[in-house]
């Protein structure tokens, strides 16, 4: 089984939540989003980010404004709409429930506190 593929799928599953959380803090330009996601060890390329932002905009969760740039073309800055803020609250509640459930399950199965030599027979 390819653990890298599984880890990538887990990251993709929470990417929307992370993006909305970042934009909720302040309006953001795409390169700002990429930088912040990298700081959180979620490496995302523009080819992944732009379709997601477009989908969120089409769902009326995001809006944007254009701002002239001194060093190039105008920049598109994204911000959450009221609908986006409500959606983010729902995602946050779901995330909290999910992490609580996963933590409870993994702690009950000793996955998070397994000793290094867990495959050795116990005496």
Automatic annotation (TrEMBL):
GO biological process: one example: regulation of DNA-templated transcription
SUPFAM superfamilies, per database record: Winged helix' DNA-binding domain
Pfam families the record matches: PadR (PF03551)
Transmembrane segments: none
Domain of life per record: Bacteria
UniProt domain Transcription regulator PadR N-terminal: residue ranges: 19-89
Protein name from the UniProt record: Lineage-specific thermal regulator protein
Organism: Kaistella antarctica
